[in-house]
From TrEMBL:
Ranges annotated as biased composition (Polar residues): 1-10
Superkingdom field: Bacteria
Domain Histidine kinase per the UniProt entry, residue ranges: 174-383
Start and end residues of each stretch annotated as Disordered: 1-24
Name assigned to this protein: HAMP domain-containing histidine kinase
Lineage, top ranks: Bacteria, Bacillati, Bacillota, Clostridia, Eubacteriales
GO terms of molecular function: kinase activity
Origin species: Heliobacterium chlorum
Keywords annotated in UniProt: Kinase, Phosphoprotein, Transferase, Two-component regulatory system
Amino acid sequence: MDTNKKSTVPTHYAPAERLSRQQVEEQARIVESLHGMRDAVDALPHITMVLNQQRQIVFCNDTLLSAIGASEMGDVKGARPGEVLRCINAANNSGGCGTSESCQTCGAINAILNGTEGHKDCRECRITVKREEELQSMDVRVTATPIQVDEQEFTILTLTDISGEKRRKALERIFFHDIMNTASGLRGLIELAEDVQDIEEAKHLIQTLDSIANTLVEEIAEQRDLIDAENDELKVVLAYVHSRALLVELARHYSGREQYQGRMVHLDESSEDVLFLTSPVLLRRVLKNMIKNALEATGLGEMVSVGCYVKNDQVIYWVKNPTVMPRDIQLQIFQRSFSTKGNGRGLGTYSMKLLTERYLKGSISFTVNEEGTSFFAVYPFTHPDGEYTE
């Protein structure tokens, strides 16, 4: 069997060459001939595949077929894992799964490549798949185990869904750290208020307490709504919003936050103020995350710029910071659970994209050049769904 023929298909990472359908069928018969193989893989609760050295599927269990809505193994033979799971990056290059630039950061392909070289590997992987015209995010644990059958090398690949585990860790991080810090600050001010006798000082303290309490409620509501959004249960209530006025409020709010001292938020003076129909609550959350992420990427003494303008019947918000985002981060930035801030984070940019594209009928993108990193959120003047409220 000739497996050394070089492919003319370009690749940005893993080799693109494949075996013919006939060669894959021959390999499939070899694997299927193993006594008890079918019963063994079908007994596993996780998606399981057997791959050849070209990363093509030669065998799989019913769990995979059920997950992708396939009726028989013949529907997936010869394809690669990302292609049958409908990973959005599998279509980025003509070589398919494993050959796009984005695949360089994929835990699955790197585990598989180690498996083809004879090494067992286990990694976490974030996959964005397209199902019925909607994007869905998956967190999986990938295990690649090399095996030899009739002097041929194969890799057994298993995918375990850990989305619930990752979500639990993220919520624990948010509630036990972020929200706890806010609640502790609230408690500290309440204790301080017991000794305040000056009326003006008391008024100022009450305003501060009110602001912190609102922040606490908003942080909890944001996590609740994100869970509802992923479950397609989020209710969108529309109202008219002044585009510039919202940015003025957020720029003032974040410029005064203690955690961002030494960093300023500057509102571009050319920002346009137009009245458009959207969800004020969801839009505010998207813009908050855009500004927070920019501030967290900005050094002391540096400035984040924000603005908005109208073009082609669209309202376009932008947030720019002076830091050049590294390429490996660019390739993963909108994936759920990906974060540069450590474990248990990574919902900020993901939620921006989810809320904007699924519920606000807009789009999120970014550009990177020598001057820094800019994020853009684009929304229509009108919204086809939802209900207007005064």
